[in-house]
Write a structure and sequence with these properties.
The protein is of the alpha/beta class and 517 residues long. The chain has 3 domains: 224 residues, inorganic pyrophosphatase (n-terminal core) (Alpha-Beta Complex), CATH 3.90.1640; 151 residues, no CATH class; 123 residues, Diaminopimelate Epimerase, Chain A, domain 1 (Roll). The protein is 47% helix and 15% strand. It has a 6-stranded mixed β-sheet with strand order 10-11-12-13-15-14, sandwiched between helices. Strands 2-1-3-4-5 form a 5-stranded parallel β-sheet. Helix 15 packs across helix 16 and helix 18 packs across helix 19. It is globular, with a radius of gyration of 23 Å.
Length: 517
């Protein structure tokens, strides 16, 4: 057999393997969901002009990049925009954007289900808009109204929560966007890497313990095509980019007592293990270490955690599935799904989400800009955490409250999550963060809630709590006081400031009841 024929046989085998995996992937999509995606794909193919909107976090940015690349490959005229949230304020600007661009198709990704009444009222009523597609994964409201036959022919909502799946673990916003892209054309299978970046940014991988549901199927599809590689490794941020001592100095998930924030101790840690931190004049990163050196360092890190914490489960997340993006540049923030998602989050949280979308679309200039935003993002988070350590937090029945007037609404959720991950705030109750520094100087106050996954297993549901409290205030005052949405473990709300204390008191009562207090 010639070298050419061996190569041809290998290529044929690989193609057959990928096709088999593709067929298996389609079969894993719920029967009730498939026809909706197919219907949406037909809308995309027949559209002439499209306007796509998406959220500003890593999941929303990844989703929008998937949509933009799909439309570009289809040769469509399109415009795209990231929006901090759809609410009674932002829908006015969305309405203006659509009227100015005059698309016949509008796509919303990573939001829309919780705001479907606003979409129906404002977007479907615009002349020229023939169809609207919602690609979301957040829990729809309990009073999700029935859609009339006339509206159903123009509005297609695709949400895993409505098909027996979890929008917190089984499929993200970017994953839902990927399903549409794949139904439009199988050539879009390469966008699976962005779907996984979005899901990673949304913490759907059980904190490094592996994906489940359709997320797992998407990851395996990416592996089959050679785009992704999954290895068991250290789950810390920066394994591709940070010099070894800084990898530990800036570690917060979990917090490393005696090492996190202690530069000299981190140097000493590697010196005592006999691990060289430099190769010549170049700093070594984690990915430069030999397997034996990694094993030595991991054992040392685990011992640091076990010496400090009573609960050995805290050490479980140190090692986990690390997803390598083989088509992205080595030793950059784009090489691993975790670091890539953090880079995108940095863009969105610094109110430049469009830079993140362009990074996903392989814009080199945007990557340079994104790295600068990442440095700013880290500085903002560090400042907010320092203020929290100095000023403390408030205890209420069923929850802890962080009220920092200087922390922007774009990062308050990340800050309170990191605070619990770093043990600055205990994890035995949910934590609610309050931000008055809102996007575009909105008069509304932003609330962000986070709950440890163990609390969710005990019955905590932040999304339901926030929505129920908002509904109570709106009905009591017979006007729009608050809007809320999200997931059981992470939710948000916008509220008029003069009703903030009342919202917190009602939420405190409900969460205390859920905790059995």
């Amino acid at each position: 057999m010639t070298r050419y024929s061996r190569a041809a046989n290998l290529y044929s085998t690989l193609v057959e393997f990928v096709l088999t995996k593709m067929e298996s992937f389609y079969e894993s999509i719920p029967e009730t969901m498939g026809p909706l995606i197919l219907q949406a794909a037909k809308k995309v193919r027949s559209a002439e002009r499209v306007f796509a909107f998406s959220h500003i976090d890593a999941d929303g940015i990844s989703a929008l990049a998937i949509i933009a690349l799909m439309l570009e490959r289809e040769g469509k005229e399109f415009e795209w925009k990231n929006v901090h949230q759809i609410n009674s304020e932002s829908i006015i600007q969305i309405d203006d954007d659509i009227r100015n661009y005059q698309p016949d198709l509008v796509i919303f990704s990573d939001f829309g289900s919780g705001q479907i009444e606003l979409v129906k009222k404002y977007v479907l009523g615009i002349d020229g808009v023939e169809s609207v597609i919602i690609l979301d994964h957040h829990l729809p409201p309990n009073n999700h109204s029935d859609i009339s036959e006339e509206v159903a022919s123009r509005l297609i909502e695709i949400n895993p929560c409505q098909h027996g799946m979890s929008g917190s673990y089984d499929l993200s916003g970017a994953g839902t966007a990927f399903l549409l892209a794949l139904y439009v054309s199988q050539d879009n299978v390469d966008l699976s890497e962005l779907a996984i970046v979005g899901a990673t940014g949304d913490l759907q991988d059980y904190y490094g313990r592996g994906f489940v549901g359709l997320n797992k199927e998407i990851m395996e599809l990416g592996q089959a095509t050679g785009l992704l590689e999954v290895v068991r490794d250290l789950t810390f941020f920066g394994i591709n980019t940070r010099p070894l001592p800084y990898l530990l100095q800036y570690a917060t998930d979990p917090y490393l007592p005696g090492l996190t924030g202690a530069e000299e101790a981190c140097y000493a840690f590697f010196q005592e293990l006999g691990i060289d931190m430099k190769s010549g004049d170049e700093w070594r990163t984690w990915v430069d270490l030999e397997p034996s050196e990694k094993q030595q360092a991991i054992q040392g890190i685990i011992q640091v955690v076990l010496d400090h914490y009573d609960d050995p489960r805290i050490a479980q997340g140190i090692i986990g599935d690390t997803i390598i993006l083989n088509q992205r540049p080595p030793k950059t923030e784009m090489r691993s799904a975790k670091e890539f998602s953090t880079l995108l989050n940095a863009c969105g949280r610094n109110r430049r989400p469009e830079v993140g979308v362009r990074i996903c679309m392989r814009d080199a200039e945007a990557f340079t800009e994104g790295r600068a935003l990442l440095q700013q993002h880290r500085a903002n988070l560090a400042s907010a955490l320092r203020r929290l350590e100095e000023d403390g937090y408030k205890e209420m029945r069923g929850m802890y409250v962080v009220d920092d007037p200087l922390t922007p609404d774009t990062i308050i959720g990340i800050v309170i999550g990191m605070a619990q991950g770093s043990m600055i705030i205990p994890v035995d109750r949910p934590v609610i963060g309050i931000s008055r520094s809102t996007t575009e100087d909105s008069p509304l106050v932003k609330l962000s809630g986070r709950a440890h996954k163990r609390l969710v297993k005990r019955g905590i549901n932040l999304k339901e709590t926030f929505v129920e409290v908002a509904d109570t205030l709106n009905e009591k005052n017979e006007t729009l006081i608050a809007e809320a949405g999200g997931h059981p473990m992470a939710a948000g709300a916008f509220i008029q400031e003069n009703h903030l204390d009342e919202f917190l008191e009602l939420a405190s009562i409900k969460l205390a009841m859920q905790l059995g207090q």
